[in-house]
Amino acid sequence: MSKIRVAVFPAAGLGTRFLPATKAMPKEMLPLVDRPLIQYVVEEARDAGIARIVIVTGRGKNAIEDHFDTSSELERLLAEKGKNGLLEQVREVAELIPVSYVRQKQALGLGHAVLQARDLVGREPFAVMLGDDIVDADEPCIGQMIRVYEQRGNPVIALQEVPRSETRQYGIVAGEKVDDRVVRITDMVEKPPPEKAPSNLAIIGRYLLPPEIFDILDETRPEVGGEIQLTSALKTLLSRRPVDGYLFEGRRYDAGDKLGFLKATVELALKREDLGGPFRQYLKGLKL
């Protein structure tokens, strides 16, 4: 069985849910406390043992590349001012993990974005990690999924139980539980209304996929609006081989949603050793 060595990060979306903030700044660069969203997910990949990442960017996303690049001028300035702590942090970002970039020239859906990474991934299994989903866990979410992949040998999709009233916001799976956290998926439905949802198990932005998904995506017909959806390709994959769902351990934040972003900001700040104490005292003093 081939190891999971590479992760694909689709980051070409327009970030319309955060306009006007994202008019000139990539959504992926919105700060959660003092780190951009995408850095949290890159660190998750690194901590899970993934060796390199491919970021799928688009027009106006240069700030992402700059963030993970070396900044000689900034480093020199920090060194001259004796700000060694900040200098170390800046260097750590540039040295996190080897990064490659590819452009998605048109916003034609998540499946189309993943397809752009085909040449850089090659013919090996890989992870797909969405920056909207921040998972705070003792063991990296994608690392938990890699363990399941190594044990069972099937593609793995992250799942989370959601209220029935929210099923129309997610891809929803049908399936049979193999154990407390592993589900053998039998069907997938994109954003069903509660009365038609086969379960309350929602697909979250972490996937472990085989290389044949690229061939399937290449053959997948665009849907309304010309978009190629990853869920459509996954349904085809499911018709050809078993696919597992995994109910991961950890707290997931939908940072692509304004309320979810605010929740993540507050809760992650409270966990910080340098900020948690005074921030907690501030919150207690608010008249809510």
Summarize this, please?
It is built from eleven helices and 13 strands.
Question: Your description of this structure?
Answer:
- Helix 3 (72-80) packs antiparallel against helix 4 (84-94) and helix 8 (212-219) packs across helix 9.
- Helices cover 35% and strands 23% of the residues.
- It has helices at residues 37-47, 62-67, 72-80, 84-94, 110-115, 118-121, 141-152, 212-219, 230-240, 258-270, 276-284, and strands at 6-10, 31-32, 35-36, 52-57, 99-103, 126-129, 133-136, 156-161, 171-177, 182-190, 201-209, 244-247, 251-254.
- With 288 residues, it is α/β, with parallel strands linked by helices.
- Strand 2 (31-32) and strand 3 form a beta hairpin.
- It is globular, with a radius of gyration of 20 Å.
- It contains 11 helices and 13 strands.
- The strands form 3 sheets. It has a 5-stranded mixed β-barrel with strand order 8-11-9-10-12.
Helix percent reads: 25-40%
| Uncertain residue ranges | none
- Give the helix/strand class: alpha/beta
- The gross shape turns out to be globular
What is the strand content?
A: 15-25%
Q: Could you report the average pLDDT, rounded to the nearest whole number?
A: 93
Largest sheet: 5 strands, mixed, barrel
**Element-level helix/strand string:** EEEHEHHHEHHEEHEEEEHHEEHH
Write the layout of secondary structure elements.
Blueprint lengths: L5 E5 L20 E2 L2 E2 H11 L4 E6 L4 H6 L4 H9 L3 H11 L4 E5 L6 H6 L2 H4 L4 E4 L3 E4 L4 H12 L3 E6 L9 E7 L4 E9 L10 E9 L2 H8 L10 H11 L3 E4 L3 E4 L3 H13 L5 H9 L4
Parallel strand pairs: 1-4, 1-6, 4-5, 8-12
Antiparallel strand pairs: 2-3, 6-11, 7-13, 8-11, 9-10, 9-11, 10-12
